[in-house]
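# step 3/5: fold
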Amino acid sequence: MSTDPPGDTTRIRGALLGRRGAGPYRAIRRALAAGCLIAVAGVPAQSPVAGAPAPTTVRVLQMNLCNSGRAGCWTGRALTRAAEVIRAERPALVTLNEICRDDVPTLEAVFAATHRGAAVVSAFQAAGDRPSGADTRCRNGQAYGIGLLTRLPAADSRYAVHSGIHPAQDVADPEERPWLCVHVGGALNACTTHLAATSRAVALTQCGHLLDEILPAIARSTGYAPTVLSGDLNLRLGDDPDVRSCTPPGYLRVGDGAVQHILASTDIVLCCTRSVGMGGATDHPALLATLVIEDTRPTRR
């Protein structure tokens, strides 16, 4: 059973598994979960224990831009509005669904400008196209899929990207749904996906496989990192199946009241969630949340 905050208002490998420890930040976790204290992205919080590593706060922004040019929700204005939201909210992690390949470098430039002096990284994974065996294409001919932008904690941070197509797909839908993760050292494994829209049963299977199979395999390959999964899961509270059916025990989950959700592993606190209007540029609001991440890496001696 998942642990939800009140209401339903966020080519390398990282993990989702592990128990919530009883370390010095238990009081912080409780206070944040109860009160949703506002934190500034990327600024370490004060540690309550002398000499202990402080937790880090990261603002996460999830957006479904409906930017293929083929869907009825396309307006041609989503990229402009997305840039405005990134400038205004200054997230440290942005997950993107229903985008074209060139949307990623366009938004990466905006993202980098809000984090001057910091190293940033971007990634893209195309959705598959079953009839052709190639990528699904936007109306402009570019590959269509999902993307991710994140700021690195230091210029020399090691990161790697892992991505693919979910093995389970709705055979009635020619679009094959993808997943994407960027692993930043032992600091964070940031993932996004856009699950099946034509079958909730398939969406649940995809979600379960990502959480139960793919991410643990990533962890075995590269070591543990606190993990966040943010995206359009096409599963709601109260649906059959319900989005909580694919939320691992102990995980925190927040959502936009519809199909976009942010899931966090047991050493991350999710707080301060709100929807951000997109001005009719797409059919989904943006979803913004703050993560508080404990530093679980071993202390060097």
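# step 4/5: annotate
Confidence is low (pLDDT under 50) at residues 5-50, 297-301.
# step 5/5: archive (pending)
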